[in-house]
Amino acid sequence: MRVGIVGAGAMGQVHLRSWSAQGAQVCLHDRNLERAREIAAPYGGAVHATLEGLLGDADVVDVCLPTFLHRQLVEQAARAGCHVVCEKPLALSVEDGEAMVKACEDAGVRLFVAMVVRFFPQYRQAWQTVQRGELGPLNVVRLRRVSYPPHGGASWYADEARSGGMLLDLMLHDIDYALWLAGDAQRVYARLNQTGARQYAQVVLTHATGAASLIEGGWAYPDGLFRTALDISGEHGLIEWSSDAPAPVRRYQAARGRAVSDVALPDHAPGQDPYTTQLQHFKTALEHGLPFDVTPQEVLRSLRAALAARESSRTGRAVSLGDSA
Ligand SMILES: NC(=O)c1ccc[n+]([C@@H]2O[C@H](COP(=O)([O-])OP(=O)(O)OC[C@H]3O[C@@H](n4cnc5c(N)ncnc54)[C@H](O)[C@@H]3O)[C@@H](O)[C@H]2O)c1
Fold this sequence. Notes:
Low-confidence stretches: 258-270
Mean pLDDT: 91
Strand order of the largest sheet: 14-13-12-11-7-10-9-8-15
Order of helices and strands: EHEHEHEHEHEHEHHHEEEEEEEHHE
Helix content: 25-40%
CATH superfamily of the largest domain: Dihydrodipicolinate Reductase, domain 2
Bound molecules: nicotinamide-adenine-dinucleotide
CATH architecture of the largest domain: 2-Layer Sandwich
CATH class of the largest domain: Alpha Beta
CATH topology of the largest domain: Dihydrodipicolinate Reductase, domain 2
Protein backbone atom coordinates (compact mmCIF):
# COMPACT_ATOMS: atom_id res chain seq x y z
CA MET A 1 0.00 0.00 0.00
CA ARG A 2 1.40 3.40 -1.02
CA VAL A 3 0.45 6.05 1.52
CA GLY A 4 0.86 9.79 1.00
CA ILE A 5 0.80 11.81 4.23
CA VAL A 6 0.01 15.49 3.83
CA GLY A 7 1.11 17.56 6.80
CA ALA A 8 4.36 16.87 8.65
CA GLY A 9 3.35 18.39 11.98
CA ALA A 10 2.53 16.63 15.23
CA MET A 11 0.05 14.14 13.75
CA GLY A 12 1.89 13.69 10.47
CA GLN A 13 4.85 12.41 12.46
CA VAL A 14 2.73 10.03 14.50
CA HIS A 15 1.04 8.65 11.38
CA LEU A 16 4.37 8.31 9.57
CA ARG A 17 5.73 6.21 12.41
CA SER A 18 2.58 4.06 12.46
CA TRP A 19 2.49 3.48 8.71
CA SER A 20 6.19 2.65 8.65
CA ALA A 21 5.69 0.13 11.46
CA GLN A 22 3.27 -1.65 9.12
CA GLY A 23 5.66 -1.73 6.23
CA ALA A 24 3.66 0.70 4.10
CA GLN A 25 5.47 2.63 1.39
CA VAL A 26 5.12 6.19 2.63
CA CYS A 27 5.65 9.57 1.00
CA LEU A 28 5.15 13.00 2.51
CA HIS A 29 4.20 16.52 1.52
CA ASP A 30 4.26 19.65 3.64
CA ARG A 31 4.48 23.28 2.65
CA ASN A 32 7.53 23.33 4.90
CA LEU A 33 9.74 21.14 2.73
CA GLU A 34 12.65 21.22 5.15
CA ARG A 35 10.54 19.87 7.98
CA ALA A 36 9.09 17.16 5.73
CA ARG A 37 12.58 16.04 4.72
CA GLU A 38 13.80 16.01 8.31
CA ILE A 39 10.85 13.93 9.48
CA ALA A 40 10.89 11.51 6.56
CA ALA A 41 14.64 10.83 6.76
CA PRO A 42 14.65 8.19 9.54
CA TYR A 43 11.96 6.20 7.68
CA GLY A 44 13.33 6.51 4.19
CA GLY A 45 10.08 8.10 3.05
CA ALA A 46 10.04 10.08 -0.20
CA VAL A 47 9.19 13.79 0.04
CA HIS A 48 7.19 15.54 -2.67
CA ALA A 49 7.59 19.25 -3.20
CA THR A 50 4.06 19.46 -4.61
CA LEU A 51 0.73 17.97 -3.63
CA GLU A 52 0.20 16.85 -7.21
CA GLY A 53 3.42 14.85 -7.01
CA LEU A 54 2.18 13.08 -3.88
CA LEU A 55 -1.26 12.36 -5.35
CA GLY A 56 0.35 10.65 -8.32
CA ASP A 57 2.38 8.44 -5.99
CA ALA A 58 -0.27 7.25 -3.50
CA ASP A 59 -3.15 4.77 -3.19
CA VAL A 60 -4.15 6.28 0.16
CA VAL A 61 -3.92 9.93 1.18
CA ASP A 62 -3.57 10.53 4.91
CA VAL A 63 -4.78 14.03 5.79
CA CYS A 64 -2.78 15.48 8.70
CA LEU A 65 -3.29 19.14 7.87
CA PRO A 66 -4.86 21.74 10.17
CA THR A 67 -8.63 21.19 10.27
CA PHE A 68 -9.63 24.15 8.10
CA LEU A 69 -7.70 22.57 5.21
CA HIS A 70 -9.29 19.12 5.46
CA ARG A 71 -12.19 19.63 3.06
CA GLN A 72 -10.18 20.88 0.14
CA LEU A 73 -7.62 18.09 0.41
CA VAL A 74 -10.12 15.27 0.97
CA GLU A 75 -12.04 16.34 -2.13
CA GLN A 76 -8.84 16.63 -4.15
CA ALA A 77 -7.63 13.20 -3.00
CA ALA A 78 -11.00 11.63 -3.84
CA ARG A 79 -10.94 13.17 -7.32
CA ALA A 80 -7.47 11.68 -7.78
CA GLY A 81 -8.93 8.23 -6.97
CA CYS A 82 -7.16 7.85 -3.62
CA HIS A 83 -8.72 6.32 -0.52
CA VAL A 84 -8.62 8.74 2.39
CA VAL A 85 -7.63 8.67 6.04
CA CYS A 86 -8.50 12.02 7.63
CA GLU A 87 -7.53 13.24 11.07
CA LYS A 88 -10.37 14.40 13.28
CA PRO A 89 -12.33 16.64 13.32
CA LEU A 90 -13.36 15.71 9.79
CA ALA A 91 -14.55 19.26 9.16
CA LEU A 92 -15.53 22.55 10.73
CA SER A 93 -19.21 22.27 9.76
CA VAL A 94 -21.71 19.51 9.07
CA GLU A 95 -22.17 20.92 5.58
CA ASP A 96 -18.45 20.54 4.84
CA GLY A 97 -18.42 17.05 6.37
CA GLU A 98 -21.37 15.90 4.27
CA ALA A 99 -19.76 17.28 1.12
CA MET A 100 -16.54 15.37 1.91
CA VAL A 101 -18.40 12.12 2.53
CA LYS A 102 -20.28 12.60 -0.75
CA ALA A 103 -17.11 13.43 -2.68
CA CYS A 104 -15.60 10.11 -1.55
CA GLU A 105 -18.77 8.18 -2.35
CA ASP A 106 -19.01 9.78 -5.80
CA ALA A 107 -15.37 8.95 -6.54
CA GLY A 108 -15.78 5.36 -5.30
CA VAL A 109 -13.04 5.74 -2.66
CA ARG A 110 -13.26 4.92 1.03
CA LEU A 111 -13.04 7.49 3.82
CA PHE A 112 -11.79 6.68 7.31
CA VAL A 113 -11.81 9.36 9.98
CA ALA A 114 -9.16 8.80 12.61
CA MET A 115 -11.25 8.81 15.80
CA VAL A 116 -8.36 7.34 17.71
CA VAL A 117 -9.98 7.22 21.14
CA ARG A 118 -12.03 4.27 19.91
CA PHE A 119 -8.73 2.44 19.45
CA PHE A 120 -7.28 3.13 22.90
CA PRO A 121 -7.34 -0.26 24.63
CA GLN A 122 -9.07 1.01 27.76
CA TYR A 123 -11.83 2.71 25.81
CA ARG A 124 -12.29 -0.22 23.44
CA GLN A 125 -12.47 -2.75 26.26
CA ALA A 126 -15.02 -0.68 28.10
CA TRP A 127 -17.09 -0.35 24.90
CA GLN A 128 -16.93 -4.11 24.29
CA THR A 129 -18.04 -4.81 27.86
CA VAL A 130 -21.02 -2.50 27.39
CA GLN A 131 -21.83 -4.06 24.00
CA ARG A 132 -21.90 -7.51 25.59
CA GLY A 133 -24.56 -6.17 27.96
CA GLU A 134 -22.46 -6.91 31.03
CA LEU A 135 -23.16 -3.58 32.69
CA GLY A 136 -26.86 -3.69 31.87
CA PRO A 137 -28.60 -0.54 30.69
CA LEU A 138 -26.29 2.47 31.06
CA ASN A 139 -27.13 5.24 33.49
CA VAL A 140 -24.27 7.71 33.55
CA VAL A 141 -21.15 8.00 31.39
CA ARG A 142 -18.50 10.37 32.72
CA LEU A 143 -15.57 11.25 30.51
CA ARG A 144 -12.68 13.61 31.12
CA ARG A 145 -9.97 14.93 28.82
CA VAL A 146 -7.98 17.94 29.97
CA SER A 147 -4.72 19.07 28.45
CA TYR A 148 -2.88 22.34 27.92
CA PRO A 149 -3.37 24.83 25.07
CA PRO A 150 -1.72 23.40 21.92
CA HIS A 151 1.40 25.23 20.81
CA GLY A 152 1.23 27.43 23.91
CA GLY A 153 -2.04 28.94 22.69
CA ALA A 154 -0.41 30.64 19.73
CA SER A 155 -1.21 28.74 16.54
CA TRP A 156 -4.08 27.94 14.21
CA TYR A 157 -5.56 25.88 17.09
CA ALA A 158 -6.29 29.10 18.99
CA ASP A 159 -8.36 30.43 16.10
CA GLU A 160 -11.84 28.93 16.29
CA ALA A 161 -12.42 29.68 12.61
CA ARG A 162 -9.55 27.31 11.73
CA SER A 163 -9.68 24.64 14.46
CA GLY A 164 -13.29 24.73 15.61
CA GLY A 165 -12.06 25.62 19.11
CA MET A 166 -11.53 23.32 22.08
CA LEU A 167 -15.12 22.05 22.13
CA LEU A 168 -14.82 20.74 18.61
CA ASP A 169 -11.14 19.91 18.40
CA LEU A 170 -10.66 18.16 21.73
CA MET A 171 -14.07 17.35 23.17
CA LEU A 172 -15.18 15.74 19.91
CA HIS A 173 -13.17 12.68 21.00
CA ASP A 174 -15.34 12.05 24.04
CA ILE A 175 -18.57 13.23 22.44
CA ASP A 176 -17.96 10.65 19.71
CA TYR A 177 -17.11 7.99 22.29
CA ALA A 178 -20.23 8.75 24.34
CA LEU A 179 -22.46 8.44 21.26
CA TRP A 180 -20.69 5.23 20.20
CA LEU A 181 -21.21 3.83 23.68
CA ALA A 182 -24.66 5.05 24.65
CA GLY A 183 -26.31 5.77 21.29
CA ASP A 184 -28.04 8.81 19.83
CA ALA A 185 -28.44 11.92 21.96
CA GLN A 186 -31.56 14.05 21.96
CA ARG A 187 -30.23 17.07 23.77
CA VAL A 188 -26.94 18.74 24.56
CA TYR A 189 -26.05 21.41 27.07
CA ALA A 190 -22.61 22.96 27.55
CA ARG A 191 -20.82 25.55 29.65
CA LEU A 192 -17.45 26.98 28.71
CA ASN A 193 -15.05 28.98 30.83
CA GLN A 194 -12.17 30.87 29.28
CA THR A 195 -9.27 32.77 30.81
CA GLY A 196 -6.78 33.81 28.16
CA ALA A 197 -5.67 30.80 26.15
CA ARG A 198 -6.94 28.40 28.82
CA GLN A 199 -10.45 27.06 28.50
CA TYR A 200 -12.49 24.44 30.21
CA ALA A 201 -15.96 23.09 29.38
CA GLN A 202 -18.58 20.69 30.58
CA VAL A 203 -21.00 19.06 28.17
CA VAL A 204 -24.10 17.08 29.10
CA LEU A 205 -25.62 14.76 26.51
CA THR A 206 -29.04 13.27 27.12
CA HIS A 207 -29.24 10.03 25.19
CA ALA A 208 -32.43 8.65 23.66
CA THR A 209 -32.24 5.75 26.17
CA GLY A 210 -32.42 8.22 29.07
CA ALA A 211 -28.74 7.76 29.94
CA ALA A 212 -26.66 10.89 30.48
CA SER A 213 -23.08 11.57 29.44
CA LEU A 214 -21.18 14.17 31.44
CA ILE A 215 -18.10 15.23 29.55
CA GLU A 216 -15.36 17.44 30.89
CA GLY A 217 -12.74 18.87 28.57
CA GLY A 218 -10.14 21.54 28.57
CA TRP A 219 -7.08 23.21 27.27
CA ALA A 220 -6.70 24.28 30.84
CA TYR A 221 -3.79 22.56 32.53
CA PRO A 222 -0.25 23.85 32.90
CA ASP A 223 1.91 22.99 29.91
CA GLY A 224 2.89 19.36 29.60
CA LEU A 225 -0.03 17.88 31.57
CA PHE A 226 -2.73 15.78 29.93
CA ARG A 227 -5.27 13.75 31.90
CA THR A 228 -8.05 11.49 30.65
CA ALA A 229 -10.57 9.37 32.51
CA LEU A 230 -13.71 7.35 32.04
CA ASP A 231 -16.37 6.17 34.45
CA ILE A 232 -19.25 4.22 32.96
CA SER A 233 -22.06 3.05 35.16
CA GLY A 234 -24.91 0.74 34.26
CA GLU A 235 -27.61 -1.09 36.14
CA HIS A 236 -25.26 -3.96 37.02
CA GLY A 237 -21.77 -2.59 37.11
CA LEU A 238 -19.25 0.16 36.82
CA ILE A 239 -16.11 0.52 34.72
CA GLU A 240 -13.62 3.15 35.68
CA TRP A 241 -10.20 4.14 34.46
CA SER A 242 -8.01 7.17 34.80
CA SER A 243 -4.73 8.05 33.16
CA ASP A 244 -3.44 8.80 36.67
CA ALA A 245 -3.75 5.09 37.47
CA PRO A 246 -3.19 3.50 34.09
CA ALA A 247 -3.59 -0.24 34.62
CA PRO A 248 -5.48 -2.37 35.06
CA VAL A 249 -8.95 -1.12 34.17
CA ARG A 250 -11.05 -1.99 37.22
CA ARG A 251 -14.51 -3.38 36.91
CA TYR A 252 -16.90 -3.60 39.85
CA GLN A 253 -19.70 -6.04 39.23
CA ALA A 254 -22.86 -5.95 41.32
CA ALA A 255 -23.95 -9.28 42.76
CA ARG A 256 -26.62 -10.98 40.66
CA GLY A 257 -27.58 -14.20 42.42
CA ARG A 258 -23.95 -14.85 43.31
CA ALA A 259 -21.38 -12.97 45.29
CA VAL A 260 -19.23 -10.97 42.94
CA SER A 261 -16.82 -8.42 44.24
CA ASP A 262 -14.58 -6.38 42.03
CA VAL A 263 -13.23 -8.09 38.93
CA ALA A 264 -10.43 -6.55 36.96
CA LEU A 265 -10.59 -6.74 33.20
CA PRO A 266 -7.54 -8.50 31.75
CA ASP A 267 -4.39 -6.50 32.05
CA HIS A 268 -3.84 -4.78 28.78
CA ALA A 269 -0.60 -2.86 29.04
CA PRO A 270 -0.63 -1.87 25.39
CA GLY A 271 2.04 -3.55 23.30
CA GLN A 272 1.10 -1.23 20.46
CA ASP A 273 0.01 2.36 20.40
CA PRO A 274 -3.60 3.07 19.40
CA TYR A 275 -2.57 5.24 16.46
CA THR A 276 -0.96 2.18 14.92
CA THR A 277 -3.92 -0.02 15.87
CA GLN A 278 -6.24 2.41 14.13
CA LEU A 279 -4.24 2.56 10.90
CA GLN A 280 -3.81 -1.23 10.94
CA HIS A 281 -7.58 -1.50 11.21
CA PHE A 282 -7.97 0.83 8.21
CA LYS A 283 -5.46 -1.18 6.16
CA THR A 284 -7.03 -4.56 6.96
CA ALA A 285 -10.56 -3.33 6.28
CA LEU A 286 -9.50 -1.73 3.01
CA GLU A 287 -7.60 -4.78 1.81
CA HIS A 288 -10.42 -7.20 2.69
CA GLY A 289 -13.39 -4.98 1.82
CA LEU A 290 -14.60 -4.97 5.45
CA PRO A 291 -16.55 -2.15 7.12
CA PHE A 292 -14.62 0.43 9.12
CA ASP A 293 -15.21 0.60 12.87
CA VAL A 294 -15.74 4.34 12.41
CA THR A 295 -18.36 5.06 9.75
CA PRO A 296 -18.78 8.44 8.04
CA GLN A 297 -22.36 8.59 9.31
CA GLU A 298 -21.18 8.17 12.92
CA VAL A 299 -18.57 10.85 12.34
CA LEU A 300 -21.21 13.27 11.05
CA ARG A 301 -23.40 12.50 14.06
CA SER A 302 -20.54 13.33 16.42
CA LEU A 303 -19.69 16.50 14.49
CA ARG A 304 -23.32 17.62 14.72
CA ALA A 305 -23.35 17.02 18.50
CA ALA A 306 -20.03 18.81 19.08
CA LEU A 307 -21.16 21.84 17.08
CA ALA A 308 -24.44 21.87 19.01
CA ALA A 309 -22.45 21.78 22.27
CA ARG A 310 -20.46 24.79 21.09
CA GLU A 311 -23.68 26.61 20.24
CA SER A 312 -25.09 25.79 23.69
CA SER A 313 -21.94 27.13 25.36
CA ARG A 314 -22.53 30.42 23.54
CA THR A 315 -26.25 30.81 24.17
CA GLY A 316 -26.42 29.22 27.62
CA ARG A 317 -29.35 27.14 26.41
CA ALA A 318 -29.66 23.43 25.72
CA VAL A 319 -29.83 22.45 22.05
CA SER A 320 -32.21 19.80 20.82
CA LEU A 321 -30.61 17.27 18.48
CA GLY A 322 -33.81 15.60 17.33
CA ASP A 323 -33.21 12.09 16.05
CA SER A 324 -30.02 12.85 14.20
CA ALA A 325 -27.26 12.76 16.80
N1 LIG B 1 -6.23 12.30 16.85
C1 LIG B 1 -5.60 13.08 17.71
O1 LIG B 1 -5.40 12.71 18.86
C2 LIG B 1 -5.11 14.42 17.24
C3 LIG B 1 -4.15 15.09 18.01
C4 LIG B 1 -3.68 16.31 17.53
C5 LIG B 1 -4.18 16.84 16.36
N2 LIG B 1 -5.13 16.17 15.64
C6 LIG B 1 -5.66 16.72 14.38
O2 LIG B 1 -4.67 16.50 13.36
C7 LIG B 1 -4.68 17.56 12.42
C8 LIG B 1 -3.25 18.15 12.31
O3 LIG B 1 -2.87 18.66 13.58
P1 LIG B 1 -1.32 18.85 13.98
O4 LIG B 1 -1.30 19.01 15.46
O5 LIG B 1 -0.50 17.80 13.34
O6 LIG B 1 -1.02 20.26 13.32
P2 LIG B 1 0.42 20.95 13.18
O7 LIG B 1 0.19 22.41 13.18
O8 LIG B 1 1.38 20.35 14.16
O9 LIG B 1 0.92 20.48 11.73
C9 LIG B 1 0.29 20.88 10.55
C10 LIG B 1 1.28 20.74 9.40
O10 LIG B 1 0.59 21.09 8.19
C11 LIG B 1 1.48 21.88 7.40
N3 LIG B 1 0.67 22.70 6.48
C12 LIG B 1 -0.13 23.73 6.80
N4 LIG B 1 -0.74 24.21 5.68
C13 LIG B 1 -0.31 23.43 4.65
C14 LIG B 1 -0.59 23.40 3.27
N5 LIG B 1 -1.46 24.25 2.71
N6 LIG B 1 0.02 22.46 2.51
C15 LIG B 1 0.88 21.59 3.04
N7 LIG B 1 1.19 21.56 4.36
C16 LIG B 1 0.59 22.47 5.16
C17 LIG B 1 2.28 22.70 8.39
O11 LIG B 1 3.50 23.14 7.83
C18 LIG B 1 2.48 21.68 9.51
O12 LIG B 1 3.69 20.94 9.33
C19 LIG B 1 -5.72 18.57 12.92
O13 LIG B 1 -6.94 18.34 12.26
C20 LIG B 1 -5.85 18.24 14.40
O14 LIG B 1 -7.10 18.58 14.94
C21 LIG B 1 -5.59 14.98 16.07
